[in-house]
Amino acid sequence: MKASALSSLLSLKCLSVQHRSPSSKKVLFPRSLSPSNSRIHHHSPMASFNSEGARAPPAIPMPPPPLTKFKIGLCQLSVTPDKDRNIAHARTAIQDAASKGANLVLLPEIWNSPYSNDSFPVYAEDIDAGADASPSTAMLSELSRLLRITIVGGSIPERSGGRLYNSCCVFGTDGKLLAKHRKIHLFDIDIPGKITFIESKTLTAGETPTIVDTEVGRIGIGICYDIRFPELAMIYAARGAHLLCYPGAFNMTTGPLHWELLQRARATDNQLYVATCSPARDPGSGYVAWGHSTLVGPFGEILATTEHEEAIIIAEIDYSILELRRTNLPITMQRRGDLYQLVDFQRLNSQ
Question: Where is each CN hydrolase domain found (predicted)?
Fold first, then answer.
Protein backbone atom coordinates (compact mmCIF):
# COMPACT_ATOMS: atom_id res chain seq x y z
CA MET A 1 0.00 0.00 0.00
CA LYS A 2 1.41 3.37 -1.00
CA ALA A 3 2.00 6.05 1.59
CA SER A 4 -0.48 8.29 -0.22
CA ALA A 5 -3.16 5.74 0.57
CA LEU A 6 -2.47 5.68 4.27
CA SER A 7 -5.68 5.38 6.22
CA SER A 8 -7.12 3.91 9.35
CA LEU A 9 -9.59 1.10 9.39
CA LEU A 10 -11.33 -0.98 11.96
CA SER A 11 -11.31 -4.53 10.67
CA LEU A 12 -12.61 -7.83 11.87
CA LYS A 13 -9.88 -10.38 12.34
CA CYS A 14 -12.17 -13.02 10.92
CA LEU A 15 -11.63 -11.78 7.38
CA SER A 16 -13.97 -13.96 5.34
CA VAL A 17 -16.40 -16.82 5.56
CA GLN A 18 -16.79 -19.22 2.65
CA HIS A 19 -20.02 -21.22 2.64
CA ARG A 20 -19.69 -24.70 1.22
CA SER A 21 -23.09 -25.87 2.26
CA PRO A 22 -25.78 -24.77 4.70
CA SER A 23 -24.12 -26.89 7.39
CA SER A 24 -20.48 -26.35 6.49
CA LYS A 25 -18.38 -23.22 6.47
CA LYS A 26 -14.68 -22.42 6.62
CA VAL A 27 -13.28 -19.43 8.44
CA LEU A 28 -10.08 -18.03 6.92
CA PHE A 29 -7.60 -16.35 9.28
CA PRO A 30 -4.45 -14.43 8.45
CA ARG A 31 -1.45 -16.60 9.33
CA SER A 32 -0.52 -14.45 12.33
CA LEU A 33 -4.02 -14.83 13.78
CA SER A 34 -4.61 -18.52 13.15
CA PRO A 35 -5.31 -20.64 16.23
CA SER A 36 -1.92 -22.36 15.97
CA ASN A 37 -0.14 -19.01 16.20
CA SER A 38 -2.37 -17.49 18.84
CA ARG A 39 -0.87 -16.46 22.17
CA ILE A 40 -4.10 -17.31 23.97
CA HIS A 41 -3.59 -18.80 27.43
CA HIS A 42 -6.69 -20.79 28.18
CA HIS A 43 -6.20 -20.57 31.95
CA SER A 44 -6.80 -16.79 31.82
CA PRO A 45 -10.07 -15.38 30.43
CA MET A 46 -8.48 -11.94 30.10
CA ALA A 47 -5.49 -13.34 28.22
CA SER A 48 -7.80 -15.17 25.83
CA PHE A 49 -9.15 -11.81 24.69
CA ASN A 50 -5.67 -10.86 23.35
CA SER A 51 -6.24 -7.18 24.12
CA GLU A 52 -2.83 -6.22 22.76
CA GLY A 53 -3.80 -7.67 19.39
CA ALA A 54 -6.69 -5.20 19.08
CA ARG A 55 -4.15 -2.67 17.81
CA ALA A 56 -1.78 -3.31 14.90
CA PRO A 57 1.01 -2.55 15.50
CA PRO A 58 0.52 -2.89 19.29
CA ALA A 59 -0.27 0.36 21.06
CA ILE A 60 2.59 2.54 22.27
CA PRO A 61 2.43 3.14 26.04
CA MET A 62 1.50 6.71 26.90
CA PRO A 63 4.82 8.44 27.72
CA PRO A 64 5.33 10.37 30.96
CA PRO A 65 4.26 13.95 30.15
CA PRO A 66 6.80 16.76 30.47
CA LEU A 67 4.55 18.37 33.09
CA THR A 68 1.55 17.19 35.07
CA LYS A 69 -0.59 20.33 35.23
CA PHE A 70 -0.84 23.36 32.96
CA LYS A 71 -3.33 25.84 31.60
CA ILE A 72 -4.81 25.80 28.11
CA GLY A 73 -6.31 28.84 26.39
CA LEU A 74 -9.11 28.42 23.82
CA CYS A 75 -9.46 31.58 21.73
CA GLN A 76 -12.95 31.77 20.19
CA LEU A 77 -12.46 34.59 17.70
CA SER A 78 -14.65 36.59 15.38
CA VAL A 79 -13.55 36.38 11.76
CA THR A 80 -14.02 39.13 9.16
CA PRO A 81 -13.17 39.59 5.46
CA ASP A 82 -10.19 41.76 6.55
CA LYS A 83 -7.23 39.39 6.75
CA ASP A 84 -4.88 41.88 8.37
CA ARG A 85 -7.47 42.58 11.04
CA ASN A 86 -7.94 38.84 11.65
CA ILE A 87 -4.20 38.35 12.15
CA ALA A 88 -3.90 41.34 14.49
CA HIS A 89 -6.98 40.18 16.41
CA ALA A 90 -5.59 36.67 16.85
CA ARG A 91 -2.29 38.16 18.05
CA THR A 92 -4.09 40.13 20.75
CA ALA A 93 -6.11 37.08 21.85
CA ILE A 94 -3.01 34.89 22.13
CA GLN A 95 -1.22 37.53 24.18
CA ASP A 96 -4.27 37.81 26.44
CA ALA A 97 -4.43 34.04 26.95
CA ALA A 98 -0.71 33.88 27.74
CA SER A 99 -1.04 36.75 30.23
CA LYS A 100 -3.65 34.66 32.04
CA GLY A 101 -1.22 31.77 32.40
CA ALA A 102 -1.92 29.63 29.33
CA ASN A 103 1.00 27.38 28.39
CA LEU A 104 -0.90 26.07 25.36
CA VAL A 105 -3.13 28.18 23.12
CA LEU A 106 -5.60 26.77 20.58
CA LEU A 107 -7.12 28.86 17.78
CA PRO A 108 -10.24 28.18 15.65
CA GLU A 109 -10.56 26.56 12.26
CA ILE A 110 -10.06 29.05 9.36
CA TRP A 111 -9.45 32.05 11.62
CA ASN A 112 -7.77 34.30 9.01
CA SER A 113 -10.43 33.96 6.29
CA PRO A 114 -14.17 33.72 5.81
CA TYR A 115 -15.24 30.08 5.66
CA SER A 116 -16.23 29.67 1.99
CA ASN A 117 -14.98 27.97 -1.13
CA ASP A 118 -14.72 31.39 -2.79
CA SER A 119 -12.48 32.71 -0.01
CA PHE A 120 -10.09 29.78 0.40
CA PRO A 121 -8.05 30.49 -2.78
CA VAL A 122 -7.94 34.24 -2.06
CA TYR A 123 -6.74 33.95 1.55
CA ALA A 124 -4.49 30.90 1.12
CA GLU A 125 -0.84 31.13 2.16
CA ASP A 126 2.23 29.15 1.14
CA ILE A 127 3.30 28.03 4.60
CA ASP A 128 6.42 26.23 3.43
CA ALA A 129 7.71 29.32 1.59
CA GLY A 130 8.33 31.21 4.83
CA ALA A 131 7.22 34.35 6.63
CA ASP A 132 6.72 36.65 3.65
CA ALA A 133 4.40 34.15 1.98
CA SER A 134 2.56 33.27 5.18
CA PRO A 135 1.93 36.23 7.50
CA SER A 136 -0.53 34.22 9.57
CA THR A 137 1.93 31.50 10.56
CA ALA A 138 4.76 34.05 10.87
CA MET A 139 2.73 35.75 13.60
CA LEU A 140 2.14 32.41 15.37
CA SER A 141 5.84 31.54 15.22
CA GLU A 142 6.85 34.94 16.57
CA LEU A 143 4.40 34.84 19.49
CA SER A 144 5.19 31.28 20.50
CA ARG A 145 8.86 32.30 20.76
CA LEU A 146 8.30 35.62 22.51
CA LEU A 147 5.73 34.29 24.96
CA ARG A 148 7.41 30.88 25.40
CA ILE A 149 4.17 29.01 24.81
CA THR A 150 2.99 26.18 22.57
CA ILE A 151 0.47 27.21 19.92
CA VAL A 152 -1.87 24.90 18.04
CA GLY A 153 -2.65 27.45 15.39
CA GLY A 154 -6.21 26.59 14.46
CA SER A 155 -6.25 26.27 10.69
CA ILE A 156 -5.81 28.45 7.62
CA PRO A 157 -6.14 27.81 3.88
CA GLU A 158 -2.77 26.59 2.61
CA ARG A 159 -1.49 26.72 -0.96
CA SER A 160 1.10 24.09 -1.88
CA GLY A 161 2.09 22.57 -5.22
CA GLY A 162 -0.92 23.97 -7.02
CA ARG A 163 -3.34 22.58 -4.43
CA LEU A 164 -5.24 24.04 -1.49
CA TYR A 165 -5.43 22.46 1.94
CA ASN A 166 -7.09 23.22 5.28
CA SER A 167 -3.99 23.16 7.49
CA CYS A 168 -3.13 23.42 11.18
CA CYS A 169 0.39 24.40 12.27
CA VAL A 170 1.81 23.63 15.70
CA PHE A 171 4.60 25.84 17.05
CA GLY A 172 6.90 25.11 19.99
CA THR A 173 8.14 27.49 22.63
CA ASP A 174 11.19 28.30 20.49
CA GLY A 175 8.98 29.49 17.62
CA LYS A 176 9.82 26.51 15.41
CA LEU A 177 7.18 24.65 13.42
CA LEU A 178 6.73 21.27 15.11
CA ALA A 179 4.03 19.83 12.87
CA LYS A 180 1.54 20.63 10.15
CA HIS A 181 -1.75 18.76 9.90
CA ARG A 182 -3.75 18.88 6.70
CA LYS A 183 -7.43 18.12 7.24
CA ILE A 184 -7.86 14.45 6.38
CA HIS A 185 -11.65 14.22 6.07
CA LEU A 186 -13.16 16.97 3.93
CA PHE A 187 -16.47 18.54 4.87
CA ASP A 188 -18.78 17.40 2.05
CA ILE A 189 -22.36 17.28 3.33
CA ASP A 190 -25.85 17.88 2.01
CA ILE A 191 -28.76 18.20 4.42
CA PRO A 192 -31.65 19.44 2.24
CA GLY A 193 -33.24 22.61 3.50
CA LYS A 194 -30.52 23.04 6.12
CA ILE A 195 -26.93 23.14 4.85
CA THR A 196 -24.91 22.08 1.84
CA PHE A 197 -21.15 22.52 1.75
CA ILE A 198 -18.68 20.73 -0.51
CA GLU A 199 -15.17 21.47 0.74
CA SER A 200 -13.66 19.22 -1.92
CA LYS A 201 -14.66 21.74 -4.59
CA THR A 202 -11.55 23.70 -3.67
CA LEU A 203 -9.60 21.76 -1.03
CA THR A 204 -7.49 18.61 -1.19
CA ALA A 205 -7.57 16.07 1.64
CA GLY A 206 -4.48 15.50 3.75
CA GLU A 207 -2.93 12.05 3.75
CA THR A 208 -1.39 11.50 7.18
CA PRO A 209 -2.44 11.55 10.83
CA THR A 210 -0.51 14.10 12.86
CA ILE A 211 0.74 13.53 16.39
CA VAL A 212 3.38 15.78 17.91
CA ASP A 213 5.47 15.87 21.07
CA THR A 214 5.41 19.31 22.67
CA GLU A 215 6.41 20.89 25.98
CA VAL A 216 2.83 20.32 27.15
CA GLY A 217 2.60 16.67 26.14
CA ARG A 218 1.89 14.48 23.13
CA ILE A 219 -0.93 15.97 21.06
CA GLY A 220 -2.99 14.44 18.26
CA ILE A 221 -4.36 16.96 15.76
CA GLY A 222 -7.63 16.91 13.83
CA ILE A 223 -9.60 19.63 12.07
CA CYS A 224 -13.37 19.91 12.44
CA TYR A 225 -14.84 17.07 10.34
CA ASP A 226 -11.92 14.86 11.41
CA ILE A 227 -13.61 14.57 14.82
CA ARG A 228 -16.42 12.50 13.30
CA PHE A 229 -14.03 9.63 12.61
CA PRO A 230 -13.29 7.63 15.77
CA GLU A 231 -10.58 5.63 14.00
CA LEU A 232 -8.32 8.69 13.80
CA ALA A 233 -8.71 9.43 17.50
CA MET A 234 -8.09 5.78 18.35
CA ILE A 235 -4.87 5.82 16.32
CA TYR A 236 -3.71 8.89 18.24
CA ALA A 237 -4.50 7.13 21.52
CA ALA A 238 -2.60 4.05 20.33
CA ARG A 239 0.38 6.31 19.59
CA GLY A 240 0.39 7.53 23.19
CA ALA A 241 -1.44 10.87 22.96
CA HIS A 242 -2.30 12.77 26.13
CA LEU A 243 -4.52 15.32 24.41
CA LEU A 244 -6.46 15.71 21.15
CA CYS A 245 -6.93 19.20 19.69
CA TYR A 246 -9.64 19.88 17.13
CA PRO A 247 -10.03 23.40 15.76
CA GLY A 248 -13.48 23.28 14.21
CA ALA A 249 -16.35 25.32 12.81
CA PHE A 250 -19.50 23.28 13.20
CA ASN A 251 -22.64 24.96 11.88
CA MET A 252 -26.09 25.80 13.18
CA THR A 253 -27.51 22.48 12.00
CA THR A 254 -24.94 19.94 13.16
CA GLY A 255 -23.53 22.02 16.02
CA PRO A 256 -26.47 21.71 18.44
CA LEU A 257 -26.78 18.00 17.68
CA HIS A 258 -23.24 16.71 17.44
CA TRP A 259 -20.51 19.17 18.55
CA GLU A 260 -20.50 18.38 22.29
CA LEU A 261 -21.50 14.75 21.68
CA LEU A 262 -18.51 14.03 19.45
CA GLN A 263 -16.03 15.72 21.77
CA ARG A 264 -17.24 13.75 24.75
CA ALA A 265 -17.29 10.54 22.72
CA ARG A 266 -13.69 10.92 21.53
CA ALA A 267 -12.54 11.72 25.08
CA THR A 268 -14.49 8.85 26.65
CA ASP A 269 -13.57 6.23 24.05
CA ASN A 270 -9.86 6.98 24.38
CA GLN A 271 -9.66 8.15 28.01
CA LEU A 272 -7.76 11.35 27.25
CA TYR A 273 -8.36 15.10 27.04
CA VAL A 274 -10.10 16.70 24.06
CA ALA A 275 -9.91 20.44 23.34
CA THR A 276 -11.87 22.20 20.61
CA CYS A 277 -11.93 25.78 19.38
CA SER A 278 -14.54 27.36 17.11
CA PRO A 279 -14.85 30.78 15.53
CA ALA A 280 -17.35 33.05 17.25
CA ARG A 281 -20.79 33.17 15.66
CA ASP A 282 -21.55 35.83 13.06
CA PRO A 283 -25.23 35.59 12.00
CA GLY A 284 -24.52 37.84 9.00
CA SER A 285 -21.81 35.66 7.46
CA GLY A 286 -22.31 33.17 4.67
CA TYR A 287 -21.35 30.32 6.99
CA VAL A 288 -22.60 30.65 10.57
CA ALA A 289 -20.45 28.86 13.16
CA TRP A 290 -21.95 27.21 16.24
CA GLY A 291 -19.22 28.34 18.66
CA HIS A 292 -19.11 26.59 22.06
CA SER A 293 -15.35 25.97 22.28
CA THR A 294 -14.79 23.32 24.95
CA LEU A 295 -12.34 21.30 27.03
CA VAL A 296 -13.41 17.74 27.86
CA GLY A 297 -11.78 15.44 30.43
CA PRO A 298 -10.96 11.73 30.09
CA PHE A 299 -14.25 10.66 31.69
CA GLY A 300 -16.18 12.66 29.11
CA GLU A 301 -16.82 15.48 31.57
CA ILE A 302 -17.13 19.08 30.39
CA LEU A 303 -14.34 20.97 32.17
CA ALA A 304 -14.80 24.35 30.49
CA THR A 305 -16.93 25.76 27.70
CA THR A 306 -18.57 28.95 26.45
CA GLU A 307 -21.49 30.12 24.34
CA HIS A 308 -21.23 31.57 20.82
CA GLU A 309 -19.75 35.02 21.40
CA GLU A 310 -16.06 35.90 21.35
CA ALA A 311 -14.33 34.46 24.40
CA ILE A 312 -11.01 33.30 25.77
CA ILE A 313 -11.38 30.20 27.93
CA ILE A 314 -8.61 29.40 30.39
CA ALA A 315 -8.77 25.93 31.92
CA GLU A 316 -6.45 23.50 33.70
CA ILE A 317 -5.35 20.15 32.31
CA ASP A 318 -4.16 17.59 34.87
CA TYR A 319 -2.51 14.60 33.22
CA SER A 320 -2.37 12.64 36.48
CA ILE A 321 -6.09 12.01 35.95
CA LEU A 322 -5.39 9.96 32.81
CA GLU A 323 -3.85 7.00 34.63
CA LEU A 324 -6.50 7.22 37.34
CA ARG A 325 -9.33 6.98 34.83
CA ARG A 326 -7.62 4.15 32.96
CA THR A 327 -7.35 2.30 36.26
CA ASN A 328 -11.00 3.00 37.10
CA LEU A 329 -12.11 1.66 33.72
CA PRO A 330 -9.34 -0.60 32.33
CA ILE A 331 -10.81 -0.86 28.84
CA THR A 332 -7.40 -1.05 27.17
CA MET A 333 -6.92 -4.40 28.90
CA GLN A 334 -10.44 -5.55 28.04
CA ARG A 335 -10.45 -5.12 24.27
CA ARG A 336 -11.26 -8.23 22.25
CA GLY A 337 -8.22 -8.63 20.05
CA ASP A 338 -9.55 -12.06 19.18
CA LEU A 339 -12.52 -10.39 17.44
CA TYR A 340 -11.41 -7.05 16.00
CA GLN A 341 -8.39 -4.92 15.23
CA LEU A 342 -7.55 -1.29 14.48
CA VAL A 343 -4.79 -1.05 11.87
CA ASP A 344 -2.47 1.96 11.78
CA PHE A 345 -1.11 1.63 8.24
CA GLN A 346 1.39 4.46 8.61
CA ARG A 347 3.11 2.80 11.56
CA LEU A 348 2.75 -0.65 10.05
CA ASN A 349 4.41 0.35 6.79
CA SER A 350 7.22 2.16 8.55
CA GLN A 351 8.35 -0.95 10.38
Answer: 70-319
Note if 183 is an active site residue: yes
Q: What is the pLDDT of residues 179-226, one digit of tens each?
A: 999 999 999 999 999 999 999 999 999 999 999 999 999 999 999 999
**Maximum pairwise Cα distance, the chain:** 72
287 pLDDT higher than 50: yes
pLDDT of residue 46: 63
Catalytic residue among 109, 158, 199, 260: 109
165: phi then psi, degrees, rounded to nearest 5: -130, 160
Lowest mean pLDDT among 13-27, 186-200, 206-220, 328-342: 13-27
Residue type, 207: E
Give pLDDT, residue 345.
Answer: 97
Number of Cβ atoms within 10 Å of the Cβ of 157: 22
Strand partners, 244: 220, 274
User: What is the torsion angle, in degrees rounded to the nearest 10, for the CA atoms of residue 287, residue 104, residue 86 and residue 285?
Assistant: 10
Q: Is the pTM of this model over 0.70?
A: yes
**Is residue 17 pLDDT above 50, yes or no?**
no
Is the pLDDT at 19 greater than 50, yes or no?
Answer: no
What pLDDT is attached to residue 44?
52
Exactly one of 183, 199, 245, 260 is catalytic; name it: 183
Respond yes or no: is residue 109 known to be catalytic.
Answer: yes
Q: Which one from 169, 224, 245, 277 is the annotated catalytic residue?
A: 224
